[in-house]
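Query structure, 236 tokens:
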């Protein structure tokens, strides 16, 4: 076991040629967009708010929220007109963390898999192509990631729609205000989250398209050995 790292390093042969081929170039794009997908989602923080009319005075109410969008864990203070010194403690409603965390998990796993395969493509291409096992495993895992990008992007797209609805000041007012005493304030900026959903479906296209180029490396697309002519015994 102690000699394994040394054997791996001795077998390392850097070759940037695969980056010029669709197999390697698309893998780099997958690596970039996987980072973009989980980074735009996991690093998000935002706020929503409205104004409360209390004794001829308009008081702002601001509620902060962020990833993983477990909204009941985010509270805000609602003005108490009868006793301004003791505001009411309110919470945002509904938990959308499952779809967000699932999407981020697929992004992180996709990034790690791209990193491993790029090292294999660029440093151990001779190992990757010497048997059919490498391309076949690569094809199966890439197809699995394609399906998971479809599921996670769809789930997060629906989850984001629900987050937008629940944090919309107009809808928030309907749940906490009475007798037209409130008016909408700042709307949360969701451009970053919209980009995360778009990047998720771009990953779906990239990973699905790359399946074809990996498939061409497997024996399912071409025979392992070239056919031999029956008449003269020469290779065709």
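Result returned for the query:
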């Amino acid at each position: 076991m102690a000699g394994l790292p040394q054997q791996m390093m001795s077998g390392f042969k850097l070759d940037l040629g695969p980056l010029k081929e669709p197999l390697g170039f698309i893998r780099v794009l997958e690596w970039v967009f996987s980072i973009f997908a989980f980074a735009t989602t996991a690093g998000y923080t935002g706020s929503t708010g409205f104004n409360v009319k209390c004794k001829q005075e308009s008081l702002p109410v601001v509620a902060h929220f962020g990833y993983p969008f477990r909204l009941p864990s985010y509270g805000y203070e609602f003005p108490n007109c009868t006793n301004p010194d003791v505001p009411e403690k309110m919470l945002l409603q509904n938990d959308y963390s499952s779809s967000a965390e699932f999407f981020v998990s697929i992004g992180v796993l996709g990034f790690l898999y791209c990193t491993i395969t790029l090292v294999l493509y660029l440093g151990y291409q001779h190992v990757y192509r010497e048997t059919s096992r490498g391309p076949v495993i690569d094809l199966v895992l890439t197809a699995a990631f394609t399906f998971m990008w479809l599921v996670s992007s769809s789930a997060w797209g629906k989850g984001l729609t629900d987050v937008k609805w629940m944090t919309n000041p107009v809808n928030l007012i309907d749940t906490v205000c009475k007798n037209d005493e409130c008016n909408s304030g700042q709307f949360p900026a969701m451009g970053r989250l919209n980009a995360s959903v778009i990047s998720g479906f771009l990953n779906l296209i990239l990973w699905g398209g790359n399946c074809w180029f990996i498939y061409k490396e497997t024996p399912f697309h071409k025979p392992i050995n070239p056919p031999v002519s029956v008449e003269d015994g020469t290779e065709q």
